[in-house]
């Protein structure tokens, strides 16, 4: 029985990788990586708006859409945030950033809906040749406070994350996170 399970899993695994080569959506998903170094090439407003539009296409519980998006192009503001937020040093090189913001008064699950929106932004960035990385605001109150004050986010809105964006510098390789041992079919 165990051998049959692993043979089935191997067939599924190989089918996944073959399908990704033939499917642009799967190719984008498997190619996505956290990009932390960027060139000086500017990112157009049109591309930034496309990323936000992709964010708004995310699933949302009961269609509450508790999200807002703040686009940053101000290099001084990004440098200031880079100095204040742990793990956000790449903001100094980024050409733009998007803050994904949620309204907990619209939905108690705002952070779930906004996470889906952030993932859509990351995938959309990958699909158009941009690099991006998720840097956490939520649930760290100090980081949320820094971001909120820097960009003027009013209450009750809360920043979920800050996504630096730019054209990748050098070759970036996605991590292979596939782990068959974490897949369970019909029983644990």
What is the CATH topology classification name of the largest domain? NADH Oxidase
Distance between the termini: 14 Å
For the record, what CATH class of the largest domain applies? Alpha Beta
Overall outline: globular
Unreliably modeled segments:
none
Largest sheet: 5 strands, antiparallel
Based on secondary structure, the structural category is alpha+beta
Q: Estimate nothing, just give the exact number of structural domains.
A: 2
SS summary, helix count:
6
How large is the radius of gyration?
19 Å
The ordered H/E elements are HHHEHEHEEHE
Secondary structure: number of strands: 5
Strand content: 5-15%
Residue-averaged pLDDT: 92
Q: CATH superfamily of the largest domain, please?
A: NADH Oxidase
Q: What CATH architecture label of the largest domain applies?
A: 3-Layer(aba) Sandwich
- The proportion of residues forming helix, as a percent range, comes to 40-55%
Your description of this structure?
This protein is an alpha+beta fold and about 190 residues long. The protein folds into two domains: about 1-30; about 35-165, NADH Oxidase (3-Layer(aba) Sandwich), CATH 3.40.109.10. Helices cover about 45% and strands about 15% of the residues. Strands 1, 2, 3, 4 and 5 form a five-stranded antiparallel β-sheet that branches. Helix 1 packs across helix 2, helix 2 (about 25-30) crosses helix 5 and helix 3 packs across helix 5.
Provide a brief overview of the structure.
The chain is α+β, with helices and mostly antiparallel strands. The chain has helices at 2-22, 24-31, 45-56, 75-84, 110-127, 141-151, and strands at residues 67-72, 96-102, 131-132, 135-136, 158-166.
